[in-house]
Amino acid sequence: MIGRFSLACLAVLLAASASAAPRGLTAEDLVRLERVGTPMLSPDGTRIAYPVRETDMERNGGRTAIWVVELGAPAAEPRRLTRSDGNESSPQWSANARVRTIALWPQ
């Protein structure tokens, strides 16, 4: 199920990018796409935490942050949970449904 979620997100991103670029999809377009990592469902089933990698073309590198979305609210917007100069990934949940572990490595 998690693999299908990631593939569905990628398909939507590719379709949106392709429709916005009538010239065709280029290698730079692919590099600029945000990449969604493995989502982690909270123990109570109400939220998903997931890493998103974005590319900084000027710095010639990527940056990964953790995002969270509420599952019970139809109009819920994803919110960025982490913000640093490094990269965060692999969110883990504690038993009380709080994000407790994030792997961090410098830029």
Kindly describe this structure.
This protein has helices at 2-20, 27-32, and strands spanning 35-36, 40-41, 47-56, 61-70, 79-80, 87-93, 99-105. The chain has 107 residues and is of the alpha+beta class. It has one domain. The strands form two sheets. Strands 1, 2, 3, 4 and 5 form a five-stranded antiparallel beta sheet that branches. The longest helix has 19 residues, at 2-20. The radius of gyration is 15 Å and the shape is globular. The termini are far apart.
Topology:
Layout: H1 2-20, H2 27-32, E1 35-36, E2 40-41, E3 47-56, E4 61-70, E5 79-80, E6 87-93, E7 99-105
Antiparallel strand pairs: 1-3, 2-3, 3-4, 4-5, 6-7
Q: Gist?
A:
The protein has 107 residues and is α+β, with helices and mostly antiparallel strands. 23% of the residues lie in helices and 37% in strands.
Structural class: alpha+beta
Overall geometry comes to globular
Average pLDDT over all residues? 78
Strand content: 35-45%
Total number of strands: 7
Largest sheet: 5 strands, antiparallel
Q: Could you say how many structural domains there are in total?
A: 1
Helicity range: 10-25%
SSE arrangement, N to C: HHEEEEEEE
User: Count the helices. How many?
Assistant: 2
Characteristic key phrases:
107 residues; five-stranded antiparallel beta sheet; 7 strands; globular
